[in-house]
Structures are given as structure tokens and as C-alpha cells.
Amino acid sequence: MNTIGEMFPGNMGRVRLTRVALKLRMPTLLQTPPDQALDAALLTKLTLCLAEVQKG
Amino acid sequence: MARTLGPYVSSPHGKRLMGKEPLVFHCNYYNYFLQKTLLLDDELAMHEVIADAAASSAFATLSNAARGLELGTPDARRKLAEYTFSELGFGTIDLSRVTPSGGVAHVPVSHYGRCLRAASGAEFARPQSYFDAGFAAAAASVIHGVPLESLEGRIEACQSMGAPEGRIAVGPRKRRDAYFVSCGQGGQWAGTPVGPNKDTHVDESAILAALGTLDFSGNEEGLVPRFGVMLTNHFANFYNRISFEFVHRMKSTGLMEAAEDLLVEAGFRCAFHTFGGIMSSAEWDAVIKPQCKTKEDWVHGMVATVNALGWGVWRVHELSAERLVVRAYDDYESSGWLGTYGKAERPVSYLMAGGVAGIMNLIHVGDISRKPTLDLGFYEKVFESDARFFPRQVKSMAMGDDYSEVVAER
Lengths: 56, 410
Hints:
The complex is a heterodimer.
Chain A: H1 4-7, H2 10-24, H3 40-53
Helix pairs in contact in A: 2-3
Chain B: E1 8-11, E2 15-18, E3 21-27, H1 28-38, H2 46-69, H3 74-87, E4 91-94, E5 98-99, E6 102-110, H4 111-115, H5 117-120, H6 130-144, E7 151-157, E8 166-172, H7 204-211, E9 224-226, E10 229-235, H8 236-250, H9 256-279, H10 282-288, H11 295-306, E11 313-319, E12 323-329, H12 332-341, H13 350-365, H14 376-384, E13 390-395, E14 404-409
Antiparallel strand pairs in B: 1-2, 2-3, 3-10, 4-6, 5-6, 6-8, 7-8, 9-10, 11-12, 12-14, 13-14
């Protein structure tokens, strides 16, 4: 997975992405084209944050 | 179960009060998803806002009820607080070891500590019982006649983190910011709402009469298991404070609209589980389903039921298979905004928006009449559907309109 669309698919993915954007305070995430390749550092950051967000 | 409580008092436009505070029914799923959203950004310190909102709402309820009941002793006021906690579905709380200078409140059963796990689908990273912390501080203040401003509750143990019981340490308040003052009923529209939509086989007054015979008091564990969820008969101004303060704190981040989207999403979850549970219930089958000859009747039946939840008066203004327009008179979110902040610059009825779209999604996308299992898989199926409904808030009582209006369309 190396794009927003692959990491956060569908409508549910959009909700998860919104949670991640809030947690990281990164509004630009919500404007990033879903098929745009992300750099490795950002991918790692998003992966870690998504894991945190998916905890209760 | 005989409990000493402030009496339930009916108020115009579907409101129900205890200790002059409006109460609204909400389930563990809404409570979970709302709190999950609020706690996303640690820098916002929303856990403090949640505890403070609980303290302010509980203080208003308990102090008004104690005054009205003329409870002259700390012991009598302690029982009022413990009974109120259980009656409203928050669990059980033992305040006997909290003195005027502080102490520990024990919470053998906590809605927030125990019942949110069913909604989370995962272990918790942090305690969830901030509401209990605020409630305990407010109770200590009312029981012992100590100013609320001098106290705060701190979570020592929470069932959400595996503790056998919750423990709240009540002690001197370390923070210097003041508690907010609950606005009570808040802004109220002076007019009379239109009557129920007549273009249906559903009889709203019969539905409300039947629902009025059900007991929504907390059981011996202080919980309200109904319709497949755990209900709370909660403080409207608690929800309003935490939601509106969250949006306010998000303003400077460039993510305010995203925050609002997540508040609406919490409303979707609320509708999915509570409305879905209601429409799958024996009570629905006995009272409402026999009146329903069309899918539109199901919508009218659900909207009629909403009018028993304390959320204001909902009216179906326009309905087809492709579109639902609901007008709400004195929706509790707008009432709370007006009572606390004055006229709003943007609509604030997030829960209402999620609820209105949720009704159409359950009936027209999920076909709730087939009684599907209301689990995450089914939620995702409905939510991922290209045919799903989205809400738009097009009028807002908080912004000066006579009613709030939500349009749900595909």
C-alpha cells in the first residue's frame, strides 16, 4: 500500500482517514488525491496512527 | 425499585426534565463513537471537557432535585446522587467514602467503563469513565455543600482497562478554569409545532402512548438494556457541551468541518444501532409494525418513536423513496447552543443530521424489515453502498430559523 486510496479504501476508509487527519492535525491529508504515491516516512506515520485510531 | 429521585417533568416540544435539566436517550454506541472522536487529539484535552461537562450537568440536576425534595442531610443527598446515577443508566456508584475534603467513589458498574467495549470492537488505549469522574465531583459538592469549583474527580481505575470496578478519586481541583454553567432547557421556540404528517397509516399518538408505558429506569446494575443496546437517559447539556467545545477547539486546526463530519458519523452509528434495534424489537413488532403498510410508514413510525427520546419534536415534512426532509422543533442541540452561546453562525444539529440519514439508510438501503444482525459488517455494507443517503442541514433553529431542517438524499 502506498497511496491514500489503498490505505483508506471506500467510505469507511474515508472516515478512518478523517480520524487520522484529526489525530495528526494534518488537514492536507483530506485533500491528497487518493492515487497519489506517498513517501515512505508519511506512509509509516499514517500506518502507526491508523493502528492507534483503530484501538478502542 | 423505589428510588429517591428528582421527579421527571414533561416540558413542551417533547422535552423531559429531571432537576430542571433536559434528558435525552442515547445508547452505548453513540456514547462510544462520540467519545472516540473527541479524544482523538490529545492536545485538545477533551477528557477534561468531558469530565467538566458531566460535573456541570450533574451538579445542576442534583442540586435542583435536592432543593426541590428538601433533602436536609448529606446522607439523603448521597442517596439521591447514587440513585440518580443508577436510574439514568450510568451504572452503580458508592459515594459513602467521599467526605467534604474528598475521598474515593467506587463504581462497581459503569456504563462508560463496561458498556462501550461492545461498541469499540477493540481493547481500549485509555480509560473511558471521564463522565463518572465528573459525576462524582458534582455529587460530592451537592452532598457536602462544598463549592463545585473546589473539587474535581480523577480516574484511579476504570473497567474499560480491565479493573474489576471503577474508582474515582475526588479531591481539590487543580485546574483554574471554571466549570461551565448548564443552560437548563436553553433556547426554546415560542411557537407551536405543526402536527404529525397525515400521509401515513401510522398513528404517532398511539405510539407515544405505548412507549410511555415502558420502563426505562436503570435495573439493579444501574443499566438500561433495551432494543439490543445499553441506553442512557442522559444530560442533553452534557452532549451539547462536549460536542460544541470540540468543534470550537478544532477551529484553529483547519479541520473543523472534518470534526463536524465525525460528529455526524457518530449520529449514523446512533441511528444504526438504536433505531435499528428499535425497528427490530418486539415492541416495534407489537405496536408499530402492524400500522406499517409501506416503507414510508416505517419512516413515519421511526420518526414518531424519536419523539419519545427527548430530542425535540421531529416532523416528516417531505418523503419519497429518494428523499426525506425532517423538521425538528426545539431539537436539543439547537436549544443547547442558543442557551449557551446565543445565535449560531452555522448549523449545529449534528446528531439530528446523522439520525435522519440513518433512518433512510436502515429502511431503504439495509432493509431493516428483514431484521439483519446489526453488527459492524452490516454497518459497513450499508455505509459502503452507492445508494446510501447523505444528510444536509438546510435550516437551523440555532441560527434563528423556527425549526431545524435536515434533507437526506442519495
